[in-house]
Amino acid sequence: MNIFQETENKMTKEKFKRDFKKKVEELSSEKLENSTTKFQYEALAQMVMENINPIWAENRRLNRINTDKQIYFFSIEFLIGRLLRLYINNLGWEDIVPDGLEELGLDYDNILACEHDPALGNGGLGRLMACFLDSAAALDFPAHGNGIRYKYGLFQQKIVNHEQVEVADNWLKHGYPFEIRQPEKSVVVKYGGNVRTEMVNGKLTFIHENYEPVLAVPYDVPVSGYHNKTVNSLRLWDAQPVDDFDLNAFNEGHFLKAVQSKSQAESISQVLYPSDHGFEGQLLRLKQEYFFVCAGLKRIVRRYKKQHQGSLDGFSDKICIHINDTHPAMCVPEFMRILVDEENYGWDEAWDMTVKSMSFTNHTVLPEALEKWPVDMMQNLLPRIYMIIEEINRRFLEEMNGKYPNEEARNYNISIIKDGQVHMAHLAIIGSHSVNGVAELHSKILREETFKDFYAIYPERFHNVTNGVSQRRFMMAANQELKNLICDTIGDKWTQPGQMEALKDLEKYASDSDFQKQLQGVKYHNKERLAKYIKEHLNVTVNPHSIFDIQVKRIHEYKRQLLNALHIMHVYNQLCANPNADFVPKTYIFAGKAAPSYYFAKQVIKLINVIADKINHDPLTKDKLSVVFIPNFNVSSAELIYPAAEISEQISTAGKEASGTGNMKFMMNGAVTLGTMDGANIEIAEHVGMDNIYTFGLSAEEVANYNHNGGYHSVDVLQQNPDLQKVMNQLIDGSLGGDTFHTIYDALVLNNDTYFVLKDFASYCDIQDQSSRDYLNHHSWQKKSIMNIANSGIFSSDRSIAEYQKDIWKIK
Ligand code: 73E
Asked: Is 328 in the pocket of ligand 1 (CB under 6 A)?
């Protein structure tokens, strides 16, 4: 029994069935037995919202009057996934609803599948925000999201003739039942124009004129906590024209101009940029960044003033603005603009308030992802913001040159504005009291390499908070059978928010053969479920008795799906050469999207699909080897995939993956990691022990060493390895059904293999072989799997949020 169920309006199965039936009939004007699944879904969604809304209203009331510190996550992505099931579980209806529906002759999973999975993010960065919101609400703690309500989410991926094809994701087509439009909370965002100064009452005043106004309209999505009474808000902003038509233009007969300005305004929240780790520098993206920063801060400031007799004094004691990567870094100059221009604070006091309010998380060290906006673009689009950035930079450099007069080169290096560009990471670091990386190794690289000059100046600002994921979504809901098995074995303490480390008790059962058998049974069911999905969607039969070895994530050179693919080609070559040799049956599963403009990544997708086609159609490999590329990887398919995995492929070039979070989702579902010593894999290894993980390849230090000092020649590696030579030749000699992959071949052989694929190939093959051999010993394999689950508690996002709370936002 949870607290939630103790309320007067306690939901029971009978009441649920009655209410649900009534709701379906009201909505559809059909008897339940004649209603469609779509109406059943809508009825269930409405019932959920009717129950959450009063609690949400109470939370909003309390947040207005109480004085707890509030956190706002500013992020250009929130990859929230489907919400209906989570809301139901959070309400404490996790048994009532499925049982009730079953008694009504309905299928719960079919109803849940009607929800369009909102794809308002590319991958890890946006999903992390969703996990953090989930954890904050579970821990009863006021943290809210602030982002963009994209009309089109991340494209849907189809595979046609082995290649990725992008289809627009019109997720709002049939409406979205979990958002509430708040038109009366709309604000105006100003672009372009010019800034004029004037003396007003003896004060130099900046007047922004001739700008183009765009209306930001908020839509709020409730974020409910697990079995508690917390409901926080995710606020997503939609861009609209200030007046539907520019009336002047219309009256003068310029109809097209009037419509044009409407669509220009709307274009700001039209589509999510589909590239992670690629900075394209487009004007529309800059507009998006300022859009949610400006709108979000306006409402926060307005609310604070209302609570504090019209003053912003004490703001930084009560409000934390968390900048998720550099996309919202303009929070720094925008808040300065509000304080100095609108609220008449002096610069120094305003700066102090700004730095104390802001904290910044960096998510990547890849140079191509670092945001650098051309000065003239920013100056034209956001003239006053640019002036403020210039002033921040001027004062910063003045201070540095005063303090460190002999460090001229360094002082130039850390400038916000240099070489005609605005360096957003520098702006974020200088304007925040805290900078953190997302795993130990990543934070170390930030301190010692990427931001070493800033670390020398502000050592106290640098922190690490290793990422975490929501166990409630990725384990308890996605793998209910596992959750139940664990609860039957060690009780349910670990299911309580912030308590996942109690899973450690499972270690006692690591060698218990009864428990091992049951765990194996759960895994087998999850593999069957995924095999069924693969059969239905791809018409490929996979053997659920084979090892499920899975790599799912965005497709990127540094993540090295290519290494996995080349190894599969090598295994296939071996099988063809020795069809009767002992072979441990294996199914290799891939999924992930490539940025539409990333040619190399798209070639990798094609290669995997070509290999899959060839191998799956060869009678020689039947029941032994299959390869599957599951199209359109998203949060929903992820929930089906992680629970079925036995091997979790985390094989990025060491030093490149800041953390990874898929690695944690696999681990808590009992998969064994096969990976490099990179990102959070290192911490997984520390917690699970080296006996329960497979590691291989160069270390981050070795990679950095080669990069700094040279000495790596991929052709030498190739010359020494005939198996690898054979595979590489097959890329270009037509053996792959006539398709050739010259771009890939050239990158690895002629361009010296930036990501050390060939260098790590031999050790990857060895570790793959070892893991397959180990799998044959069921007892020791199950033990490894149990040790992974038992030690996964630390990778809950509840732990990450608790660390942010203590070390960064300083909340008791
Ligand atoms: O290692 C992951 C990390 O786990 C990292 O690559 C990813 O963030 C995850 C969460 O911390 C990430 N995404 C982006 N940068 N790092 C990114 C960059 C630009 C646009 C969109 C996403």
From this structure: no
